[in-house]
Write a structure and sequence with these properties.
Structural class: alpha+beta
Number of strands: 15
Number of helices: 10
Order of helices and strands: EEEHHEHEEHHHEHEEHHEEEEEEH
Mean pLDDT: 88
Length: 295
């Protein structure tokens, strides 16, 4: 991993030298087995055939926390073609939406298939490293792309580092489709004190690090860098923010924060924070940073 050194402190100080996998399939198998924990993506299929016309196989197909389709491509080391190959399969996916919906329905059920969001399909590239041209391509491209560098440390540690992320350009709503009140608020058009507070929260969350992207749903706004780390749900008199930080690791304050593990709510995360004012936002910033690190 770039600039990161790992040391074993048992019996002295010994550096654990990072290495690449022996073969690409080792990386793919490991990530597919633990895709939810590592990428925040539910695994759907491996080596998915694109049929005789396209003549290829998608390394991994999945669906993320916000219902967006995800193509995952792997390379053992550095490969200048990884982004173009992934975009080829992403284009195929957009032209075969019914096939993806059937896959989701077969794996996760009809309700999950009905919630697929085609406005923001994603490409995640997992590789040993990337070139400066790859990093530039991500910034310039209109699609949502994440470049993730991996390293293996010894026999027990596997590291992932997001080196570039871009949110892409969302597909606009279809003509004649009404935008409900929640959508108006998500677009930053809330009025009065809550509108100002939402704008301040937006600025803080986007400023936590490079590559943070914002995904708008009908009931919440997700902030993510590879995975969601905050989901903001506007209400008339407050903002509800759901975070990935563990409720067990923070001091819960009645009326401000609570553990919602096992309770139904919009967005993702088990720590709920209630914001009524700028003062609440100041109190919440450390929790935001914890959640960003946890995701």
């Amino acid at each position: 991993m770039s600039g990161l050194r790992l040391f074993n402190l048992k019996g002295g100080v010994t550096e654990v030298v990072p290495r690449l996998a022996e073969v690409e399939a080792d990386v793919q198998d490991l990530v597919e087995t633990h895709m939810q924990a590592m990428l925040g993506v539910t695994f759907l299929a491996s080596e998915y055939s694109t049929g005789p016309v396209h003549g290829g196989r998608v390394d991994s197909l999945g669906i993320d926390e916000n219902g967006s389709p995800v193509v995952v491509e792997y390379k053992r080391s550095t490969d200048a073609g990884v982004i173009n190959q992934g975009l080829f399969y992403l284009a195929w996916l957009m032209d075969h939406r019914d096939a993806f919906r059937r896959l989701v329905r077969d794996r996760l059920g009809a309700q999950a298939a009905a919630r697929v969001r085609w406005s923001a399909p994603r490409l995640i590239c997992v590789a040993g490293d990337f070139t400066r041209y790859d990093l530039h391509a991500v910034r310039e491209h209109r699609h949502s792309i994440d470049l993730v560098r991996y390293r293996i440390f010894g026999d027990e540690h596997f590291g992932l580092e997001t080196v570039a992320s871009a949110g892409g350009i969302r597909t606009p709503a279809r003509a004649g489709r009404r935008r409900g009140p929640a959508r108006e608020k998500h677009a930053g058009r809330g009025d009065g004190a809550m509108g100002e507070l939402a704008a301040a929260v937006d600025e803080v969350l986007l400023g936590l690090g490079e590559g943070v992207t914002k995904v708008e749903n009908q009931t919440y706004i997700a902030y993510q860098r590879l995975q969601n780390f905050a989901c903001v749900c506007p209400r008339k008199s407050r903002l509800l923010v759901y975070l990935k930080a563990s409720p067990a690791e923070v001091e819960l304050v009645p009326g401000f924060s609570r553990d919602v593990t096992g309770l139904g709510h919009h967005g993702t995360g088990n720590l709920e924070v209630r914001l009524h004012s700028e003062r609440d936002l100041e109190r919440a910033q450390e929790l935001f940073r914890m959640s960003y690190a946890a995701a």
